[in-house]
Amino acid sequence: MNPVTEKIKILCADKNISAEELAENAGLTVKQIELIFDSEKIPSLSSLIKISRALGVRLGTFLDDNENIGPVVNKNPQQSHPVTFTSHLTNDNSHIDFFSLAASKAGRHMEPFIIDIKPSDASKMATSAHEGEEFLYVLKGSITVLYGLDKFVLNAGESIYYDSVVEHLVTSAGNEPAQVLAVVYTPN
């Protein structure tokens, strides 16, 4: 079992919350929660945000390694193992690998990541929506951001900041991989 799912199960047990109650409080289906509990894959970022709110914890609770109160310094974030989120409804959204830049920072409200985006077929992917805000800065390549009814193509050196309550999807803009610096903010 992956450490994220393990933490969700422990929190549910500690708070005496059933899968049905978690699904209702998170705005997910019972089937989605059961798939999350039974899977080796990490839930989608959108699902994790909804689950964190339902459990009354910050998103970082699921991604934390060690809890440091002071600053966290990363000399080479690519040395860490990537986290690949999944929708548990399709495997087609596993085109993104997240490298956490602050997993050991205690009490954080922002989640900074370096994200490697592999080329993939955007027509097969599901958009997501969740509370909070996201900032993306393209480091390499080009990305396409579907945001509501709008479509933005961004190249290296360009950025976008948006409210994540609007349905959105980030993909590489072509047949080449892309890399972005992303900061995800979720309110408590």
What is the typical, i.e. mean, pLDDT? 81
How far the N terminus sits from the C terminus, by CA atoms, comes to 27 Å
Biggest beta sheet attributes: 5 strands, antiparallel
Structural class, from helix and strand content? alpha+beta
| Uncertain ranges | 87-93
Annotation field: number of helices: 5
Quick summary of this structure?
The protein is an alpha+beta fold.
How would the blueprint of this fold be written?
Layout lengths: L2 H12 L4 H8 L3 H9 L3 E2 L1 H11 L4 H4 L21 E2 L9 E5 L9 E8 L15 E8 L1 E6 L2 E6 L3 E5 L4 E5 L5 E8 L3
Parallel strand pairs: 1-2
Antiparallel strand pairs: 3-4, 4-10, 5-8, 5-10, 6-7, 6-9
Helix pairs in contact: 2-3, 2-4
Describe what this molecule looks like in 3D:
With 188 residues, the protein is an alpha+beta fold. Helices cover 23% and strands 29% of the residues. The strands form three sheets. The chain has a five-stranded antiparallel sheet with strand order 3-4-10-5-8, with no helix packed on it. A three-stranded antiparallel sheet has the order 7-6-9, with no helix packed on it. It has a two-stranded parallel sheet with strand order 1-2. Helix 2 packs across helix 3 and helix 2 crosses helix 4. About 4% of the residues have low confidence.
